[in-house]
Design brief:
Length: about 190
């Protein structure tokens, strides 16, 4: 669920009567934890573990956290599988992250291995190479509108390999892509 969809769902939840027929009212402490969770979700979607951690930091009792998380699930506001899939789509599109980097980020957010595997299942080696190539091409086009001379290529190679490494690409792939693109952008 994207941020706008999530915000619309939160508004619909907040407009519901407190004790609707399908769900009993929350205990007072659980209501506070659920309200705090809704505030957090207005900024961005979060994994279940992220919400649990944030609520625990704010010293909500464990029973209240469990009840609030259960209610958020019932309302359809948290779903780790959907969160992981959206995280992967967004981070690949906006940041150019590699499969390995995405897996590490999702683990850090407490997403389960099965959800992580499903979210990155469509990313294969050719997708990784294509993404890395596009990142390097964009960077080279911005820095060097014309050809890259041999002297500049030496320093640029190091910078571009490091650039891809920060996005989680393996060194071998990064070096191969950078060398190929520098050769293509070199003097004729």
């Amino acid at each position: 669920m994207d941020l706008e969809g999530l915000r619309a769902s939160i508004a619909a939840v907040e407009a519901r009567p407190a004790g609707s027929e399908d769900l009993p009212p929350l205990a007072p402490e659980a209501h506070e934890a659920a309200t705090a969770s809704l505030r957090l979700l207005r900024y961005r979607p979060r994994s279940e573990q992220e919400l649990r951690d944030r609520l625990a930091e704010k010293e909500h009792p464990p029973e209240a956290i469990d009840e609030a998380i259960g209610r958020l699930r019932a309302w359809g506001l948290i779903d780790d599988a959907e969160f992981a899939a959206e995280w992967v789509r967004g981070r690949r599109r906006r940041r150019g992250r590699s499969r390995g980097a995405l897996e590490r980020e999702l683990r850090g957010k407490g997403v389960g291995e099965a959800h992580i595997a499903d979210a990155v299942a469509d990313i294969d080696a050719s997708d990784e190479r294509e993404q890395a190539t596009e990142l390097v091409r964009t960077r080279l086009a911005r820095r060097y509108p014309g050809a890259v001379d041999r002297e500049a290529a030496v320093g640029e190679r190091r910078r571009l390999v490091a650039f891809l490494a920060r996005r989680g690409y393996p060194t071998g792939l990064a070096m191969a892509v950078v060398d190929s693109e520098l050769a293509a952008h070199g003097p004729s």
